């Protein structure tokens, strides 16, 4: 077997692999730090094994031992996004097959990418702080030194000490709690994950949590203010689990709990084993349940094969929807996915290699590569194969067999494809006609558009066409009855169909509001698309609503496109950037990084931004330039208001830094820029 390489990891996992982690966390809300100790059970894969590398990022390493003896360690130079390699030299040699326990005591940084620390004000209860993690794809290394690659799977055990008024939960089965023997104001919670899984699925939440039982193997967790609503919303979980088991085989993880996070969570949900994280805007969890098989049980070997996690999960999710509702509904969702794919590809540069189904991620930050492409291009390929190979029942037979074949392991696209050829050995001539290179290694839309049943979509298409073709005189023909015939899924589709078209005229958007009252709709999938339609039509009345939705929740699926639409509305570009800057510190770091990119921070988005400090009568602007790897503030004193001597502004000064966080500090920290301080009185940074 060829050695595995993973461009997103610096760990030496071809020399040794992790079998188990024993974690001890002391969660410190005062300093926003986890004081951690991890004992890794490592198996040597080669003789004369005496050194290894673990992934870390922004960790402070205090001590390393090997089987209890002190071991030498050094932290290598930090890579721009992959972190710093922790090189460990053992005081002895192992031969292939032997195990060693490497114990590392360390501290996380307050800026750890995996961790978001919320103040009491950012929670529903307003009384207690809150912590949650998000390790996918490559952030576990900011929380635990480990082999942070999905090609390695291990079990884990954890003991977590937290203030006793708070509760800890993890992506594992709960194993009791006790008073912390070292500190009577704290409680230790214990967890056991007995199924081997990749590091990116380690997850922790600490907060004033409560739970309700909603099924024989399911509890829903959240702050107490939200828990009854959450129990109601996810009442169908057990039915979905049973449907998924019929399709994909037994559920191996024991418990299936759900945790509803505060609104700043950047993803709709995260499929952490035993404990799916869900955002309050999530409506269905068929997707997360499906990950219990595709993703968590059979895992992509590196993030270049992410479509094996996501494309297969979308396929399974839609199959569950088809079983629970009907086949036309599955077809309807599939067709909607094709449009989402088009929309997603349009946000990339033409021919961006990141729109390949199997992208090359050498020197690519996985957060920046994240898009719907692996989900929907992956699904489209599977649906295309389903059409070619004999329909849904036949193809689902293959998926179930693939899951059994590769359960508990990590796979590449070649592993998947080879098994496809083995399973359909009497249909090889059909498979040979598939344009594999076009599907997998070519940017843009797939080479073939599958055929979908349009029964449910036709009504949405017809309504969309009516609006696009309508003249001013036709506007009176629209009425509330148009939408009453449609399900909420069809309303979402109707609005989605308007998005790739030219913006509809302002008169039309106003009329749409008059007859459909979409401003009042709470369903976030509808609201999100409606607000995009409004901003595109340059309807200023909708702008505050779009700002509100972009900032009051942090789900990237909604926040990023809304910020992009607002940025594209010339009149509000400056406000878009300043709103982002105000909210940045309260945003999840992944969301903040990507929105900054969307708003062209790299090209100096602050060119257009000015701010004023009325108390000093100074209006200033700064400009950021990227110079090689460095960023520089090259101009800052812009204009002096009447009555203020211009020499009080001083000379141009230059600040240089390599880190994005520093860029933020150098702009807004008063110690660095003392004139035109920060972003004025309205700013909360
Ligand atoms: Zn997923």
From TrEMBL:
Cofactor entry: Zn(2+)
Cofactor notes: Binds 1 zinc ion per subunit.
Pathway this chain belongs to: Lipid metabolism; leukotriene B4 biosynthesis
EC number: 3.3.2.6
SMART domains, sorted: Leuk-A4-hydro_C
Annotated localization: Cytoplasm
Primary location recorded for the protein, binned into one broad class: cytoplasm
InterPro entries: Aminopeptidase_N-like_N, Aminopeptidase_N-like_N_sf, ARM-type_fold, LTA4H, LTA4H_cat, M1_LTA-4_hydro/amino_C_sf, M1_LTA4H, Peptidase_M1
Peptidase M1 leukotriene A4 hydrolase/aminopeptidase C-terminal domain sequence ranges: 455-599
Catalytic activity, reaction form: leukotriene A4 + H2O = leukotriene B4
CDD domains per UniProt: M1_LTA4H
Keywords of this entry: Cytoplasm, Hydrolase, Leukotriene biosynthesis, Metal-binding, Metalloprotease, Protease, Zinc
NCBIfam families named among the record's database cross-references: leuko_A4_hydro
Family to which the UniProt record says this protein belongs: Belongs to the peptidase M1 family.
Protein name per UniProt: Leukotriene A(4) hydrolase
